């Protein structure tokens, strides 16, 4: 799957692979021993956040689960 | 005025598999309208819940009559935010999805809650709700109706996409005819080589055919189960094709 930042797709894939393994093998099993994907995540984030700014995607400052607040 | 939609579905996979597949469902054959997918925020909280924000870019297919509400210069694609919380202790995944742009034309918000089914083992219950509204003066009702119709159709694709991801994860194949053929070939191969019928493999390896499921169009899904417990089989429709099957598709 492509990233919104064309240059970020490879970094995204590398991160996704790391995350998917950690998620199934550690996180879901309650293993709290720390996240092996921090570095790849940061590399990927630097790239994608830059792309978001360049494309002026209005996601900045949007509250987590924002609209859910008014729902029963 | 807001249109509200709600439904419950059973997904015949264990919650852990569903949640893992949730991150891996793009791309899939039913998601050609999803152009990009990115994780833009992620955090594990002190109480071991995973918070994630994903940004998706999707095409915005509209019927002709609605295109007039689109000024010529306006971007055709929609940016969508999906916020989610995975709680592995309480075994729930809650997602909240909404569009960032084109909100005056139509705003679609969706909340999904995935939890273990109370009634059935190795099954996940999905409760899906949507709120659809339009701010276009004088046309909000037809736009909302269109929005709801498109949402329902996207919901079917979304479930198919999730099931596709699930079956990839579990090494299943989704074409009954293909699998039947593979099973037969393997049997023939074994018979030819050894001159004796293929012996049944040990537990879990095999090809099974299951009857229709869910509210989507009727059909068969054929499973190559490496670990049988991940898949729940229905009695009268189960048919075993024995022989060792290469379970990756």
Characterization of this structure:
The complex is a heterodimer of chains A (72) and B (249). With 72 residues, chain A is an all-alpha fold. Chain A is built from 2 helices and no strands. Chain A has helices spanning 9-25, 38-54. In chain A, helix 1 packs across helix 2 (38-54). The longest helix of chain A is centred in the N-terminal third of the chain and has 17 residues, at 9-25. Chain A is flat, with a radius of gyration of 15 Å. Helices cover 25% and strands 33% of the residues of chain B. Chain B has helices at 15-23, 64-67, 140-169, 176-194, and strands spanning 2-11, 34-44, 50-59, 77-87, 92-99, 107-116, 124-133, 207-210, 221-224, 239-241. The longest helix of chain B has 30 residues, at 140-169. The model of chain B is unreliable at 172-177 and 194-249 (pLDDT under 50). Chain B is globular, with a radius of gyration of 22 Å. In chain B, a hairpin with a 7-residue loop joins strand 6 and strand 7. Chain B has one domain: Alpha-D-Glucose-1,6-Bisphosphate, Chain A, domain 4, CATH 3.30.530.20. By secondary structure, chain B is of the alpha+beta class. In chain B, the strands form 2 sheets. Chain B has a 7-stranded antiparallel sheet with strand order 1-7-6-5-4-3-2. In chain B, strands 9-8-10 form a 3-stranded antiparallel sheet, covered by helices on one side. In chain B, helix 1 (15-23) packs across helix 3. The A-B interface holds A 1-5, 8, 12, 15-16, 19-20, 23-24, 27-30, 32, 35, 41, 44-45, 48-49, 52, 57-59, 62, 64-68, 71 and B 16, 19-20, 23-24, 26-27, 34-42, 44, 48, 50-51, 53, 55, 57, 79, 81, 83, 85-86, 88-89, 96, 98, 100-101, 109, 111, 129, 131. Chain B: This is PRELI domain-containing protein 1, mitochondrial-like isoform X1. Chain B: It comes from Betta splendens.
